[in-house]
Amino acid sequence: MASVQDVLRKMKQVQISEASDYAGLAVDDYSFYYGYEFNRAGQDEVWGFEYSKDDKTVFAIEYDEMKKYKDCPDKFETTQCLLFGIGIFLSLKGGENNG
Questions:
Q1: Is 58:98 a contact under the CB 8 Å cutoff?
Q2: pLDDT digit string (tens) for 62-79?
């Protein structure tokens, strides 16, 4: 198992972004996004969470589905929803090989 120092030395880039309508976290080729620009065909202003690797969506969930989970934050709490979405992703996909 690699040490924390080894992992930090190998990381190329960490970016954190936040605004009133989105929050994001990108680490190397992995990105997590929550916001209303969560684009679903023909729908306006759909809020949701998305995890991508190498610019390809691996996991996505609309806010309407997220709020079915206990303690889901208000959709306008973008940073909290980003973290909540990461938690949902890890709980659903954590045991699978997702890169």
A1: yes
A2: 999 999 999 999 999 999
